[in-house]
Amino acid sequence: MIYISTDYVFDGTKPPYSELDTTNPLNMYGKTKLQGEQVTLEASPNHIVLRVPVLYGPVEYLGESAVTVLLQLFYDSEGTKLVSDSEMRYPAHVDDIASICVDLLELKETNADVKGIYHWGGKEAMTKYGMVRDMASIFQLSMSHISPDPNPSQGTSRPQNAQLTNAKLENLAVGKHTPFRVGIESVLTGWVQRKKSEGL
């Protein structure tokens, strides 16, 4: 079994995080994910826990991902939109994570030591505002009504920088990273074209 967990099991104060670092989730999402990890490994130490960062990929609606939902900002031009330029994220494409899961399971067939906790994070440090900037550049969209917010996000507590180290997986020759600009263009092109056809 592979249990998909999150970088939010860390508090973001001492990145980058290895699989041996102490967890300290700041919000309910991180806490419940950590509980899931514990149940998974208690059920069998041979199970695998894969911690990943914020994910993006093909979606049925933009709000399905915390990354793709940012595209909506360009089409809501009423008033200035403040977008977090504080917390660092390391977005990963879902295809990369799926590939890693397959590689881990195949490797596990011949290597009984493949078990326990593993990390995989994207290789580009980005704030939400940085992601929006890339979207604007790729699709030639106006950012005149979008401004960076240097303050920590309001509401639910989030880690400032929960970067995960990939070394343990890379030492097994497992890993895949799609550059963000390449990945987000492939994911959002259809949505942008649809908006244009609607006259937006």
Automatic annotation (TrEMBL):
State which pathway it belongs to. Answer: Amino-acid biosynthesis; S-adenosyl-L-methionine biosynthesis; S-adenosyl-L-methionine from L-methionine: step 1/1
Q: What is this protein called?
A: Methionine adenosyltransferase 2 subunit beta
Q: Which taxonomic lineage is given here?
A: Eukaryota, Metazoa, Ecdysozoa, Arthropoda, Crustacea
Question: What does the UniProt record say this protein does?
Answer: Regulatory subunit of S-adenosylmethionine synthetase 2, an enzyme that catalyzes the formation of S-adenosylmethionine from methionine and ATP. Regulates MAT2A catalytic activity by changing its kinetic properties, increasing its affinity for L-methionine. Can bind NADP (in vitro).
What is the scientific name of the source organism? Daphnia magna
The family this protein is said to belong to: Belongs to the dTDP-4-dehydrorhamnose reductase family. MAT2B subfamily.
Signal peptide positions (record): none
Q: Subunit details for this protein?
A: Heterotrimer; composed of a catalytic MAT2A homodimer that binds one regulatory MAT2B chain. Heterohexamer; composed of a central, catalytic MAT2A homotetramer flanked on either side by a regulatory MAT2B chain. NADP binding increases the affinity for MAT2A.
Q: Which residues form the RmlD-like substrate binding domain?
A: 1-189
Matching Pfam families: RmlD_sub_bind (PF04321)
Q: Which Gene3D superfamilies match?
A: NAD(P)-binding Rossmann-like Domain (3.40.50.720)
Write down the superkingdom of origin: Eukaryota
